Amino acid sequence: MRELSLHVVGADHPNRGGGNRRFEILLCSPGEAVTLLPEPRNPVDPNAVMVVSVRGVQIGYLTADRAVWIGGMLRGGREVTAVFQQATPMGAAIRVAFDGAVPVLPRPVAEEDDMAPEWWPDDLPSEEWD
């Protein structure tokens, strides 16, 4: 299956037009659609990919290492579908699928440390994903 979980970071930063990212994350439900938007004019990282809730509120960004890869796919016209997975200490997690597939949320795995996320992102994909 061509899907994986990704971290969403930057939840503690305010949105430009107002709005609290952490509060919006609390409003998100597992499986709810999120939108991935490349942000080439971002002054910090021209490869940035913004993550926006179904209500149109930004909840953060993909991590820099994944933004380059996912942003390249989006700019190249590849279909990337994303859903909210869960809130995390860093911000949130989303699940993405490629080429028309619908993301399926993984089963949570309980951790002994309450602050640890209940999932771990997938390894970087191999060449078969390109």
Please outline the major beta sheet.
6 strands, antiparallel, barrel
The figure for the number of domains is 1
Q: Determine and state the CATH class.
A: Alpha Beta
One letter per element, helices H and strands E, the order comes to EHEEEHEE
Molecular structure report:
There is one protein chain. The chain is α+β, with helices and mostly antiparallel strands. It has one domain (3-95): Alpha-Beta Plaits. It is 15% helix and 30% strand. The chain has helices at 21-27, 64-75, and strands at 3-9, 33-38, 49-52, 58-62, 80-88, 91-98. It has a 6-stranded antiparallel β-barrel with strand order 1-4-3-2-5-6. Strand 3 and strand 4 (58-62) form a beta hairpin. The radius of gyration is 14 Å and the shape is globular. The protein starts with a strand and ends in a 32-residue tail after the last strand.
Q: Gist?
A:
The chain is of the alpha+beta class and 130 residues long.
Layout of strands and helices, then pairs:
Elements: E1 3-9, H1 21-27, E2 33-38, E3 49-52, E4 58-62, H2 64-75, E5 80-88, E6 91-98
Antiparallel strand pairs: 1-4, 1-6, 2-3, 2-5, 3-4, 5-6
Give keywords:
130 residues; alpha+beta; Alpha-Beta Plaits; 6-stranded antiparallel barrel; 2 helices; globular
